[in-house]
Amino acid sequence: MNKSMLVGAVLGAVGVTAGGAVATYSLVDRGPDYAEVLAVTPVNETVKTPREVCKDVTVTRQRPVQDQHQIAGTAIGAIAGGLLGNQIGGGNGKKIATVAGAVGGGYAGNKIQEGMQQRDTYTTTETRCNTVTDTSQKLVGYDVKYQLGEKVGSVRMDRDPGSRIPLNDRGELVLVQQTQ
Fold first, then answer.
1. Phi-psi region for residue 91, left (φ > 0), alpha (ψ -120 to 50) or beta?
2. pLDDT digit string (tens) for 72-94?
């Protein structure tokens, strides 16, 4: 055999062996490409939003009183009672009846005016407002339980990963979705 042929055969054998070793190393040394997802739980946050609710209401109010002590009713009642009492009896009895009529009439006039003032009302419409709180749910992420080889772990993600989570070249979870 010729020397160059022998060198060529040896170099070819070395090249084939090295290429096979590199190919086998990249296949054997490499771990899994994905972690298996075992469970996905959506995580919600309760959001409270206050708002004002107003409505018109019918309100009955008492008119302002002009004569708080019912002086007019008392005076008119006393005069009317005194005149009626004066019609009864004679002499001193007439005087007593007049005084008693004035006192009774004054009291009655006072109470009549008081009742009239209490019933003197008017109706109006007012707007009444109060604050109510609306609640809603906001999705903030997903709690994901996964298995990578024999290890079981959990992580919070911004999306539902589906049935598996990809791994990077170092065997770590890829948690951020790749945009294309």
1. left
2. 767 787 687 667 777 776 777 77
With beta carbons less than 8 A apart as the criterion, state whether 47 and 136 touch.
yes
Closest CA to 41 of 156, 152, 134: 156
Cα gap 114→83, rounded to integer Å? 22
At residue 116, what is the residue type? Answer: M
Tokens (6 digits) for 65: 């009183």
Q: Is there a contact between 78 and 103 (Cβ–Cβ < 8 Å)?
A: yes
- pLDDT of 173 reads 87
Contact status, residue 92 vs residue 13, Cβ threshold 8 Å: no
The pairing of beta strand 34-62 with beta strand 121-148: antiparallel
DSSP code of 167? B
**Where on the phi/psi map is residue 66: left (φ > 0), alpha (ψ -120 to 50), or beta?**
alpha
Q: What is the pTM assigned to this prediction?
A: 0.45
Question: Given the structure tokens 């589906």, which residue do they identify?
Answer: 162
Gap between the Cα atoms of 147 and 164, Å rounded: 9
The C-alpha atoms of residue 24 and residue 138 are separated, in whole angstroms, by 49
DSSP 3-state percent helix, strand, coil across the chain (nearest 5): 40, 40, 20
